[in-house]
Amino acid sequence: MTDMLSITGLSKRYNDGQVALENVSLDVKEGEILALLGPNGAGKTTLISAVCGLVVPSEGHIKVGGFDTKSNYRSARSLIGLVPQEISLEPFEKVINTVRFSRGLFGKNPNDNYLEIVLRQLSLWDKKNSKIMQLSGGMKRRVLIAKALAHEPRVLFLDEPSAGVDVELRREMWKLVSELKSQGVTIILTTHYIEEAEAIADRVGVISKGKLILLEEKKALIKRMGQKKLEISLHSPIAAIPAQLQHFQLFLSDDGMSINYMYDTKGSTNEITKLLNEISNADLQISDLQTSQSSLEEIFVSLI
Amino acid sequence: MNFRSIQAIYVFEMTRFFRTLLQSFVSPVISTCLYFVVFGAAIGGRIDAVEGVNYIAFIVPGLIMLSVMTQAVSNASFGIYFPKFIGTIYEVLSAPINFLEIVVGYVGAAASKALFIGLVILATSLFFVDIEIIHPIIMILFLVFTCISFSLLGFILGVWANNFEQLQLVPLLIITPLVFLGGSFYSISMLPKFWQVVSLFNPVVYLISGFRWAFYDHSDVSIFTSLLAIILFTGFCIFIIFIIFKTGWRLRP
């Protein structure tokens, strides 16, 4: 697959000296979903704004669909749909008019059939003649998405799509994202919710203080950095970990009813067998076993 | 030229105008009537003809210019400031269009509204006084150019303004005085010599003078000077807007 988005050595310094981005390089393949994680003010929105033409980069090159965003901005920008973080909509305008405006603005011929599909997909069709100010917060966010999709973009930027959105809409959005992916649309989203990145992204990038400190396949990332936890529930409580088990990395729960064993998935494979044998030799009765893998959230917190 | 994008901006802006058509229509009509009552019937009755033209008829071009200039500036400045204020400007700035297309869309809409209001005032004044327009084509040309140039000025103002107060301040402190002192209600020749010279530094004098020439074949300054002045003013505004987009000033950090 070809690179749909290619960023090389992108830096952004504002006039007040603030460095928002520092030498960021990044390639995203067509049809890929990339989640950009990072704390507030890390530079995620600046990165998106630089690609979309809202911020002038200080250094570096950006190509969208092979078109340079500076020298060939018309071709590059016509491929991009942007859903901004803030809900910015003209309050007195009707939903259908604002969506038509977006399509026209990007130079596409009028196509109400296509707009109907988009609005239906976002459960907005019934509200097409409502004024924006009459809509709920979640509905307004849907309108922003509809506007971004109105000109049939090949790359979609979702800046904090889940901010202030209820669970239902978040799930619907994830569904929409996977539908778009199946149509070959490349999606770059920024999020605070690691759950979101975990649920829908193919790759995860972490931005901190303007630098891209990590970029990796989501599964590989979890596998590489993730520790697994084996929770061994006991029949009856114990006061302390028996001496013969001390050489394992074990933690006893406060109530003495379970032992937690942290292990690396890359570690030697017979450790668990050994542990279970020794538990049995120590005359401890096991009532249940449970394993869990650390989430992206834990990985993320450990990174920054 | 990306005509679809221009059309999208133009249509979107004009819908705002048509949404408030009643206000847009009624307020200039009422204010024009008031001017006619006060300056025409009350005061005008005691003023002799100016430069051979009945005073009520004399002030018609000035009245039209007064409204057209203030409306063009306020429409255009609001048109670009409002999206900036509520944040919807992101869409225009991320669209595959250049500065000229953005300006043609916004300024075109603002100028159309101002032109509409100018024509409404002209029609209203016909109820008060008989007017014969000697050079109708030049009249339309001046009207259209004034609409465009003051909409361009308004666009610059809207990009510059950081809050609603600033948006109001410039029309109030600069444009209204320039228009009132630009000979809307009097001929420059009625002023003492010193103030006549001072008036020549007021660009609005040339516009009103040229516009009045188109009506009555009489002007304070030569019609060619007036034409040159409005072309220079329009060019200057376009140049400033070009610089704004080139540098991204107040639009693209």
State the gist of this model.
The complex is a heterodimer of chains A (304) and B (253). Chain A is of the alpha/beta class.
Rg of chain A (CA only):
24 Å
Distance between the termini of chain B: 25 Å
Oligomer: heterodimer
* Net shape of chain A: elongated
List the total number of helices of chain A. 10
- Note the beta-strand portion of chain A: 25-35%
Integer count of domains of chain B: 1
Measured distance between first and last alpha carbons of chain A: 32 Å
- The CATH class name of the largest domain in chain A reads Alpha Beta
Instruction: Compute the number of structural domains of chain A.
Output: 2
Helix content of chain B: over 70%
Q: N-to-C SSE series of chain B?
A: HHHHHHHHHH
Across the major sheet of chain A, the strand order is: 6-7-8-3-9-10
Q: Which residues of chain A sit in consecutive blocks of at least 5 with pLDDT less than 50?
A: none
What is the strand tally of chain B? 0
Any idea what the radius of gyration of chain B is?
19 Å
